[in-house]
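Look at one record.

>
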Amino acid sequence: MSRQRLGDLGRALWQKSSSAPLCAGLKIPAFACGGVASSCGAPGEHKCCKQGASSSRAPANVAANPNPHSGAAAGHRHHVVGKLRGEEALAKAGRAFSSTAPQIDHKTYLWARYNEMKRLVHDLIPPGVCNLLNPSTIYANNEVNLDEVDIYGFDYDYTLALYSNSLNEMIYNKARQFLVEHYKYPQGISKYNYIPNFAARGLHYDIQKGLLMKIDAFHYIQMGTVYRGLKPVPDEEVMQLYRGSNHVPLHQVSGFYGKGPKMKQFMDVFSLPEMTLLAAANDYFISNDIEYDPVHLYKDVSDAIAMVHIKGYMYKWIMQDLEKYILRGDETYAVLHRLASHGKKLFLITNSPFSFVDKGMKYMVGKDWRDFFDVVIVQADKPHFFNDCVKPFRRLDSNGDLQWDKIKSLDKGQIYKQGNLVDFLKLTGWRGSKVLYFGDHLYSDLADLMLRHGWRTGAIVPELEVETKVVNTEQYAQSLTWLQALTGLLERMQMYRDAESKKVLQDWLKEREELRAVTKNLFNPQFGSIFRTCHNPTYFSRRLCRFSDLYMASISCLLNYDLSYTFYPRRTPLQHEAPLWMDQLCTGCMKTPFLEEMAHIR
């Protein structure tokens, strides 16, 4: 039903738009005529788009000819071609022709078009158009046939094991304690509590300026998303700080693994407490008028966060209360059981220590969890595991103690430590597109595998579940549809440049900015969606498309698809292409195959 409604909506928009003035000769409604019709005149101006918009005549009254397909207008279109040629010649000779149609001022005409468009948007969005997206959908950046995948690999943290938000607060509190007690930072920082929804994954941090911000796929800062401490930086100040532009040069944005000389991109879920602590510490120094070096602050906060992991605090908290911190473990078991029962080979490569992984997997999968896996590698030191061949594999015994025998094969039931991908490929022979590896960190888990080794990759993006719920709300659907319609009006009506028309267009631009703020705030009041900066994809989104063949909210999404299923990416129109097929806009709808039909959907 959802596809039919979208199709009906598109057809209705087109049919309604036929009552809009036509571009003479081209038979394209000005309502839906993009760049081609951008220079169409108002009603009564029988003028082709190609003739430009230089006419100074006022638009004709909209009501004067409600049906441009009939009467004199139709006769004009079909019989005036030869006459037009003669008129063009006369016009070149200096003779002018004027319309006898009723005239109205541009301001009235623009607002009439505005109100007509608003009615269309309001009337043609059916109540059921929301709730189209299923949060359990797997999205494809590249075509992937699961029937050709024989080997499935997994990271552990935030891939096999999903954690509750309370873990972020624990990491923040312990790192803040390290700052005060170990690095001797002011005691006042201890008063800053964790703010759960302040930061978002994929943000950039300007190390030298102490600014947290969102950058789009073209390296432009999204204005309104720049924060110094816990307070937004005015757009004018941002432009001054970056020499009159909101563009950040490529070499400053980040290197291959998300860190450049002046910028750091925070790419995994574990980064949320680090970004929040950076903001809190900056805010304390600014609020108390204390001079400080942002570069040293960044280093100290990063070290404090690292100490939480290195000293094993995070591992200890989770192992002491698995039920509190680990989410949806039964789904992890279901995925592994299904893959193994279909004869697929499974392997695990994680940076976490064996004792931690072992306890978590026993909780989620059972004491015999290792029977599912053909190879298990812990403390792998990714991304170095994937891009160098220095560290050899070592084997751990049943107690987790290191053994020093030379590794000549990677055997089922054994636990291996460190190693490198070159030796892994030699010992297993698992190469190319028959391998599909899942991880949450685009750089550490997926980038090298995609670009250098030709493995298939699947990104785990837990934020998809929350963002899908926002997209499915009526408020978002209405706001976004009207935002797009208003943007189209601005594009088509910009040729009206008299004083009153410019004021109307300025009013529309102001409303457009307000609509952008509304849609942004629905996701995150500070930074918006992790996938969009207004109309452009974010830098994170661009990397997601570059380094992953598939992406999903959790590995349990695999339960919704047959293991011979082929994922096809949407053929989203390029800017010069027309969106011809409405059903291509429906990937992720509730009617996606297997999402309703298969009995084992969660």
Notes: The first strand starts at residue 22 and ends at 23. Confidence is low (pLDDT under 50) at residues 1-7, 9-99, 581-602. The first helix runs from residue 2 to 17.
